[in-house]
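Quick one:
INPUT:
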């Protein structure tokens, strides 16, 4: 069963997460769908941008599907974690502008994934952003630390990572965790407008600048 849908609107790729009944959580099959979508965006000829949104008005992504993961063998869990890191890395280093359109809760691995995007636009009236790893006893890997370190406000990042606090959209904007807030009825259109503008940027130049700014992440694949 597909858990996401990729479409092209103008020059913008829009990846809509559709696995709302499972809070858009990650299993190995879900991660492989992300990788296939990223392959398609990467191979697109011409300038573009990627938006990841969801059809659920409550949850953007709650990260790892823990019941699924605990049912896997140790070897399968290792494969899963390696694939999860590959998704985080590929999003962070994608050869096009990226925007996370966060129209619901963004927790744990979902929040780490959102951190990998170039820009984050969040719903103003609902949803929380949270790294609960300290509370659920799942430490960040080294790559994950470098991904969340893309959050520019290091004071806010310290509290997110070490206390597991959940922040509202307004708090996220104040703490520079997200770039903009919109009410739900304006969120999708505003995000698409911003992505459309980013899609006019020369892709090669944009990618070179972005990757030069993310050398700590690039080292994980050297």
């Amino acid at each position: 069963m597909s858990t996401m849908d990729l479409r092209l609107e103008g020059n913008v790729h829009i990846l809509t997460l559709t696995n709302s009944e499972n809070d858009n959580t990650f299993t190995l099959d879900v991660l492989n769908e992300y990788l296939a979508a990223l392959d398609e965006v990467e191979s697109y000829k011409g300038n573009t941008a990627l938006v990841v949104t969801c059809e659920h008005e409550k949850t953007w992504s709650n990260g790892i599907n823990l019941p699924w993961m605990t049912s896997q063998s140790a070897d399968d869990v290792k494969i899963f974690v390696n694939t999860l890191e590959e998704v985080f890395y590929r999003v962070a280093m994608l050869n096009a502008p990226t925007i996370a359109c966060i129209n619901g809760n963004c927790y744990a691995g979902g929040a780490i994934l959102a951190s990998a995007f170039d820009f984050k636009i969040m719903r103003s009236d609902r949803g929380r952003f949270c790294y609960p790893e300290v509370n659920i006893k799942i430490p960040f890997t080294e790559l994950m630390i470098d991904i969340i370190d893309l959050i520019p406000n290091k004071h806010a990042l310290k509290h997110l990572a070490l206390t597991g606090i959940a922040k509202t959209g307004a708090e996220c904007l104040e703490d520079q965790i997200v770039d903009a807030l919109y009410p739900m009825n304006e969120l999708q259109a505003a995000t698409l407008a911003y992505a459309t503008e980013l899609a006019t940027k020369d892709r090669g130049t944009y990618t070179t600048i972005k990757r030069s700014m993310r050398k700590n992440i690039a080292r994980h694949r050297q």
